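Hi P.,

Sorry for the delay on this. The queue was packed all week, but I finally got your sequence through. Input first:
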Amino acid sequence: MKFEELLQAVGEEPLFESGLLLAGNVDPADVQRQLSRWADAGKLLQMRRGLYALAPPYRKTHPHPFLVANHLVRGSYVSLQSALSHYGLIPEGVPVTTSVTTGRPGNWRTPLGIYDFRHIQADLLTGYRRIPVAAGQEAFVATPEKALLDLIYLEPGADDPSYLGELRLQHLDRTDLESLASQAAAAGRPKLVRAAEWIIRQAAVDALEYETL
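Then the structure:
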């Protein structure tokens, strides 16, 4: 395969799997050797084994970090501070894209950023959806309510009012507080229920303060 042929095949894609190039009468070993050469030459960026992005100036679409995260670990979804920042519920941007998975936790350092994967119990792998994150790109991301609950579940002491206060939660009117309470109750973890109750009270305080402005 020539590089021009690769550009014709994947030039419009933000990411591609090497398996897409194995259709037809091709030698898988030869394809892998070519991909390795192009990565060494700086024409490709290798995210993990078998997952690549075209390097500038060859790529036409920059992969969104959430899309990269979904592809690094299949079956994961973006959550915690990454999702909260995306929705504007916390004031800070976050340099690491964090996801949850029922698989092994891990940290990936790639040419397109750092990606952290936290382990979560299978019964809690709910409350996410596929949303647009960039032009022509969609990713699985926790809902605002589930991103909060995932953070509380995974961080020690995260149901403590001092911890919740330090998050500086904002724009809580963008959350479905009834869904937050029902998801916390359905999870069967008292820690989540306590934190959800505090967040709901804080949302009421914020609403009252807004009305008095």
